[in-house]
Amino acid sequence: MTAIFAAGGADDPAGGAAIAEVIGATAGATAMTAALVGLGIAHRTGRTQLLARLSAFSERISGLPGWAALPVGLATGSLLVAVFGMYWDISLHIDDGRDAGPLANPAHYFILFGLFGIFAAGFLAMVLPSERTGPTAVRIQENWYAPLGGVLVLACGAFSLLGFPLDDMWHRLFGQDVTLWGPTHLMLIGGASMTLVGLSVLLIEGRRANAAAGHPDREKGWARLAQKAALPGGLLIGLSTFQAEFDFSVPQFRFVFQPMLIMLAAGVGLVATRMYLGRGSALLAVAFFLVVRGLLSLLVGPVLGQTTPAVPLYVVEALVVEAVALRFVRRPLAFGVVSGLGIGTVGLAAEWGWSHLVMHQPWPAALFPEGALLGLAMALAGAILGAWVGSRLAAPEVERPPILRPLAVVAAGALAAMVVYALRDAPTGAPVRAQVEVREVREGEQREADLLVTLRPRDAARDAEWLTVTAWQGGGSMVEPLEEVGAGRYRTTAPVPLYGSWKSLIRLHTGSELSIVPVYLPADEAIPAREVPAPPRFERRFVAEPEILLREQTGGGGAVWALAYAVVAAIALGLLVLLAWGLHRVAAHAGAAPPARERRAAPRVTGRPTPAPS
Which is nearest to 159 in space by CA: 579, 563, 565, 562? Predict the structure, then answer.
């Protein structure tokens, strides 16, 4: 992933990676892909038994068919590697600025290898089976049928990996899009998150294959328990990565977006989880989420010495879902609606209180009522989508009312509309100016100062969602609220760095407006941009945040910009359509009799290769 917030000197390119970095990354990716494809061909033609042995071992210890067990294990480990790399990468960019390219940042290797592992898991699931795995299998060619789940996992991995070259192309065209919510960044995150849907389908196919072979209880208890926690917990982690800018207290979007995203993750993840995996699964998912995200925060923060991300709670939302499920779990529409109402009220209130305990920027009273209303709406939309997903995965145990599909489409549309609304940034009043007095507490090359800030007009920060001094990319980060000392007068509560590569800013968020005053910015020859100094006294006007935070972005607007967004959107829509088709297919074949050849197959479904068709 590229820089989340741009900074750095002339040695760090601001419009795409250095050519040597591109060549090295391309060569490495090509070599790994060639090795993977070669291994798959060798397995299918019987020239190697390596995959067959690994598949058989996975089958023995899990009780699932090897073509499902081995890819699921590989994908699970790969997802953990990728999410660690992502959070480490974000913290590095926040603390140190941008880097020279994909090979210049150690966190990028974890992301690359993690995403490639997901791709490899899908590929292995497709090449391992020697016979058709069930009625949902996808025909690749004569005598070769791939599990549907393997196809979906492969597509998700390919979607994420495609984000890397597209990301570099994007930067060459438009400069750095210095936000987690850049279109190609969302490809990296979204593809990895959606992998959990493909893995769920693959596990369903594995269990159906066991049943078809006359061994419905063959799966080991530990494997079922692990899936009941790790599978939905991983989905919750994936859905929560979209909140990462807020977790690190450096969001570039309106504050209301954070409760909306948390409610969406809880609605989709926990409702689908409880319907698919049964009693207690929502709580197990949250437990897995808290353990993994807690360990990630410890690794990134105290262990590696970077900015430590906060973690949302989700416990109360899980309790709400488990309680509602006692009565409504077999009625997906009622379950989704009632769960959404509970998540968007009781759960939202709990997250509001939790923010005051663990988040550096707790949710203020100014977020109410907009945050409460949009949070409730997002929880409802997410819960209806979760009910649709869960009813497909849980078929035929729960009913699938025909109305649920169009309602899910409506919920998806409402979700998209709310995201667009939350992303908007529009001026809400008269221009605001800041008179700043810089009181030095340390002179010299590592200059630090306290700031006394007077706003014009004096009531400009009334009912503000935040008024902070934010500094980052000088070897650390700080986000501190300004303390009011008089009418329209504020002071910092900690010294602000005004040297080196630090970027120090005053940020004001009122209503739908995000504005900013630079206190000190370093010169950046790669953009190019001049230094913004911090004299003892100065007065500056608040400007729209993109003018400062996105100053490395170029070429915005126009036909090329619109075409680039359209291409990324079309690719993303294609993946979503494929996943929806996969969920429909796995539900439509629930309880279907296996093909005659499968019914005659040996009880064990192994990874033995089949001869290549002549």
Answer: 579
pLDDT, tens only, 19-59:
777 777 788 889 999 999 999 999 999 999 999 999 999 99
Residue 459 DSSP symbol: T
Beta bridge partners of 68: none
CA angle at 53 for the pair 51 and 55, rounded to the nearest 5°: 65
User: How far is the C-alpha of 75 from the C-alpha of 78, rounded, in Å?
Assistant: 5
d(CA 587, CA 582): 9
DSSP 553: B
Q: What does the alpha-carbon distance between residue 433 and residue 428 come to, in Å, rounded to a whole number?
A: 15
**CB-CB contact of 176 with 552 (8 Å):** yes
In the chain, % helix, strand, coil (3-state, to 5) comes to 55, 10, 30
**Cα 94-96-100 angle, rounded to 5 deg:** 110
pLDDT tens readout for residues 558-613: 788 889 889 999 999 999 999 999 999 999 988 654 443 333 333 343 444 444 33
By CB atoms closer than 10 A (0-12, 13-18, 19+), residue 602 is exposed
Go through the domains of the chain in sequence order and give each one's CATH number.
33-219+565-589 (no CATH), 242-425 (no CATH), 433-544 (2.60.40)
State the pTM of this model.
Answer: 0.90
Closest CA to 182 of 166, 196, 161: 166
Q: How far apart are CA 342 and CA 256, in angstroms?
A: 19
Q: How far apart are CA 166 and CA 175, in angstroms?
A: 13
Supply 263's token pair. 């409610």
Interhelix angle 348-358/257-277, rounded to 10 degrees, is 120
Return the H-helix or E-strand segment holding 316.
helix 315-328
Residue by residue, DSSP assigns 352-404 as HHHHHHH-SSPPPGGGTTHHHHHHHHHHHHHHHHHHHHHHHHTTTSS---TTH
Q: Which residues lie closer than 8 Å to 185 by C-beta, 6 or more apart?
A: 1, 2, 163, 167, 177, 179
